[in-house]
Amino acid sequence: MSYIRFENISKSFGKNEVLKNIDLEVEKGQLVTLLGPSGCGKSTLLRCLSGLETVTSGKVYLDGKDITNVNPKDRDIGMVFQQYSLFPNMDVAQNVAFGLKLKKVPKEEITKRVEEMVDIVGLSDHLHHYPAQMSGGQQQRAALARAMVTHPKVLLLDEPLSAIDALLRHSLQVEIRRIQKEMDITAIFVTHDQDEAMVMSDVIHLMYKGKIEQSAAPTQMYTQPISKFAATFIGHYNIMPMEDFQKLTGKQADAKDVAFRPEIVEISTQPIEKEGYLTMKGRVFVSLPHGNVLRYAVLCGDKQVDVDVLFKKATLIENNTDVYLSFKEDDCIFL
Ligand SMILES: Nc1ncnc2c1ncn2[C@@H]1O[C@H](COP(=O)(O)OP(=O)(O)OP(=O)(O)O)[C@@H](O)[C@H]1O
């Protein structure tokens, strides 16, 4: 049996069914992400594991035991939330020591374990600082240390980085992943940010309206979405009804929609003819920098197709220029 197992979990608040027959497994030592839009049930599923929420039906197993009705404090689960949940009147050392004191761990051992843990999260210089004296990122590291110092069976991270600015957020993503691997922690991470899920996870569980839409490793999720929703949520796919796609490219397929990523499309002012490639004509109506690429929005018929070109290669095509788009048929996903 897997280390964590949600078996046929449903959860309703009154008439609102928020989780619908969820089956999900997590292996020991994995970091899995629950990814999905706001309100799809990510936090509720996490709270069913921690015991902060009861399930309406189904069972939750942890480390071979049915914990569905176990008191939250006896589940041995560490949690970090979006809000910095440190005790404001305690310094970092006292905050991190808190759980160990509750467990009546001997004093010398507490000091040793707190110092080790604070060192791992890179806060040794802030051992005696209070939360108000630290940045958001430092406070989240302290919260992480506090959640991990007791060696919980599972670490639950509910959007722990969403209040932190982009640059620091990225370095904390990498750091949390490093610590999780180094300490062989089993963790479930909740986010609505696809990039964060891509960086952090062994497996992504994409949720939609209370169900698991797709479960896959990050690269597979990115390159092989199984539904229109998955393609919309991950990878910024161009999605076009098959009827329009057929009119533009001549390609026929037994599908409702076709999805293709902006970065697989070549754009040129000259016709492109290549074996195995599909082409369509269009007109550039705007181009905007997007991270490290230039994104052209091209109108093909009455459909917008986004095309990403690496900045270093880009010679700017002016707005209102007629262009040819081409892409490998193999790179299209027929849904
Ligand atoms: N205690 C509660 N009482 C009533 N409804 C609730 C409660 N907790 C959550 N809900 C509802 O359950 C649904 C799922 O909420 P949940 O917080 O799990 O979503 P989420 O995917 O984590 O969203 P977000 O990314 O915005 O945090 C929402 O419609 C929410 O309003």
UniProtKB/TrEMBL annotation:
It holds the Pfam family ABC_tran. GO terms for molecular function: ABC-type quaternary ammonium compound transporting activity; ATP binding; ATP hydrolysis activity. It comes from the Bacteria. Keywords: ATP-binding, Nucleotide-binding, Transport. Its EC number is 7.6.2.9. PROSITE patterns: ABC_TRANSPORTER_1, ABC_TRANSPORTER_2. Residues 4-234 form the ABC transporter domain. The keyword Magnesium does not apply. PANTHER family: SPERMIDINE/PUTRESCINE IMPORT ATP-BINDING PROTEIN POTA, SPERMIDINE_PUTRESCINE IMPORT ATP-BINDING PROTEIN POTA. This is ABC-type quaternary amine transporter. It comes from Frisingicoccus caecimuris.
